[in-house]
Amino acid sequence: MSMQKAVDNNRSSNAGLSMDNQEKLLADALQNVRQHAFAMKRVLDQQSVMEGLKHAANMLGELRTSLLSPKNYYELHVVVVEELHHLELYLTDEFEHGRGSHDLYEVVQYAGNIVPRLYLLITIGHVYIRANELPRREVLRDLVEMCRGVQHPLRGLFLRNYLLQCVKSLLPDTEEENQEASKTGTILDSLDFILLNFSEMNKLWVRMQYQGHTRDLQRREQERRELRILVGTNLVRLSELECVNVERYKTIVLPKIMEQVVSCRDSIAQEYLMECIIQVFPDEYHLNTLNEFLKACRELSASVNIRNILISLIDRLTAYSTRDGSQQNIPENIQLFDIFSEQIAEVVKSRINMPPEDIVALQSALLNLSLKCYRDQFEYGNKVLENTRKIFDNIALDTQVQTGTPAAKELVKMLKIPIDCYDILDVLKLNHYKLVLQLLSYRERHTVCMYIINSILDKETIIPTAEQVTQLFELLLTLIIDQTDSALETSRQTITNEDFVEEQNLVARLYNNFQAPNDPDQQYHIIKICQDTFKNGGLERMRFTYPPIIMQAYALTFRYKNIREQDEKWEKKCQKLFQLCNQLINTLTKLETNDLPLRLYLQGALAASEIGSENAETIAYEFFSQAYTLYEEQAGDTRAQSASLTLLIGTLEKVTCFAEENHSTLRQSLTQAATRLVKRPDQVRTLLLCTHLFWSAQRLNESTQKSEQVHDNEKVLACLKKATKLTTQIMDQSVQVQLYNELLNTYIYFFNQNLPDIDITLLNSLIEKLQNEMSKISSNENDEFIRNQIQKTFDYLRQQSQLEKFQGLQINN
């Protein structure tokens, strides 16, 4: 049974048809189309036009069906139109060779069914217009009016779309009214044609919503969305007409479109068509019709998602205004921000039940507009942020936006916009930014604060004043001190939590961006502000935030030293900085490990020594003694004690401000500490280091006030002998051999330094001892490393044996 008979027998909806039935119906229809198309082509080849029209009408009759879904109907329509194109080409060829019939346009109007009749009229009318057989203006008006005869939504939409496609290149696009134009038409005729076609198609499209059972509503809405491009094509054709200028768009095109959009009262149609208007027409048109467009937005159905429409328009105009990296594209007479601000306020006011997240999204788009189009006018951005805060204050007083809600997510996006557009110094000029940030719960505030810090670090922004640092800390308090609403997060704020460690490392890195390059006093104020702020963060945060303050304070003392000729009080300022550092490090001693404060104390001793102020020795001795006290508290942790003692010895060797009394006390204490270490190898190695305290370390000569090396031969030899004795007492053969090698290297160093009592004979005895002991160790992987080290020592000695000083050196090959 043909599709035509199926339509005649059953005009019901296709809602009840299964997928298999749909495919069968489509296959049957396509088969009928191909049969009639084949017959049409055959008779046309035989120059039988009337028979060809008869078969074409039968083929087009398949489009009368109401049983196919929109998707399947589209497939059928594509095949039919493709076959119908053969008829069009045949008729065109006939007219080009002077064989065309002049009455076909009237003849096909007697076709029995309206759908085939109108498709044939459109096809033949298209051919007649191109062949100048009929006046273009009359045919176009005739066709668009006759299409009213098909009121079935699906059939009508595809029919009018076919009409629009056929006349695409035939629409008049001229403005001159002359004798010729009376037949061909002008731009006004094209506007009437497209606007009428658009109006009728939109009515058909909306009517689809109300056909069938309510249980199929969701399916019908989906089908309508699949067909929306058919309606939108009319607006695309309007935008392609060259004679449509701003004035004509404002007075003719937009009012007609808006009248249809507003009057249809259908949310799907209104959302799509408003978006389509924004996208297809030029930016200049939108700028000159902004008030009209936004006024129409307020008249849309309450169920329309007005948020997306307004955001799309704002984003497009924002991009247009900054297209070439400039902000000059907006005419001075158009106050873009003021217009949008007022209209958005009216929209929010008129829609009482608008979700908070939609309100924030609108404010975000407006904020983006203000920051990009009016970059230097911070009052616009402040106004948006202030209005956002007021809106939420009116919704719920003294309550934060619940974490994880759409509104919270939109607020986070909003607060990221200024960070992306500006550097942090400009963001600080937005006074109400902090107030909006306070609307968020702990987790969202944490996200924004991390985003701010990462932005500062990525852009390498320098914050040069204490006032700006204070303002920044007000934004970042969530990361700096415990929050009243972070009770659930307290357990994670420990050194064992990787996220917390990463977060606090970022805060610590941020401190390096607090620089007042030309004003040391300003830098001092920054340090004090950081101290006052970070001291409220708790000990777990201080382990991260205090060290950069301390190191910056040490660095500042050098800056004061460099300007000592311009600043008479430089020594007092340095003393204040060292007192501050001492206070901060003392706080860090409460940590479970003393390694960090010990290192900071030693760094302070070095800094005081290099500064060379009047009380440098007192400060350095205080810092060094504090470090030594921390070392003594590490009893029980042999590895930590050994490492700390190595640091103490190395630091004392570099400090140059100690007089003999203090220097002697410290070097003797360190030497005794070396002998008190638990493990023999540690004792040997630290004693070897201590030898440098009695030789190359520098002390202050009180008479000349200049530093000089200690060069205490006896103490050096005493340390070497003690280390040698301890080495002989070590039970582990491999470790003993390794230490003999280290002893030999130390003896070689002092031999080169011309230390009395160290001669070739002593070196030869050590070499012999080392060679004998080396033959006793195994050849495993660990011992192989020791052998390589010894071999390097011997290679060096072989090179030196060529020198006169090393004559008599005995090394076995």
From TrEMBL:
<keyword id="KW-0813">Transport</keyword>
<dbReference type="GO" id="GO:0005829">
    <property type="term" value="C:cytosol"/>
</dbReference>
<dbReference type="GO" id="GO:0006886">
    <property type="term" value="P:intracellular protein transport"/>
</dbReference>
<dbReference type="GO" id="GO:0030906">
    <property type="term" value="C:retromer, cargo-selective complex"/>
</dbReference>
<dbReference type="InterPro" id="IPR042491">
    <property type="entry name" value="Vps35_C"/>
</dbReference>
<dbReference type="InterPro" id="IPR005378">
    <property type="entry name" value="Vps35"/>
</dbReference>
<dbReference type="Pfam" id="PF03635">
    <property type="entry name" value="Vps35"/>
</dbReference>
<comment type="similarity">
    <text>Belongs to the VPS35 family.</text>
</comment>
<keyword id="KW-0653">Protein transport</keyword>
<keyword id="KW-0472">Membrane</keyword>
<dbReference type="GO" id="GO:0042147">
    <property type="term" value="P:retrograde transport, endosome to Golgi"/>
</dbReference>
<dbReference type="GO" id="GO:0005770">
    <property type="term" value="C:late endosome"/>
</dbReference>
<protein>
    <recommendedName>
        <fullName>Vacuolar protein sorting-associated protein 35</fullName>
    </recommendedName>
</protein>
<comment type="function">
    <text>Plays a role in vesicular protein sorting.</text>
</comment>
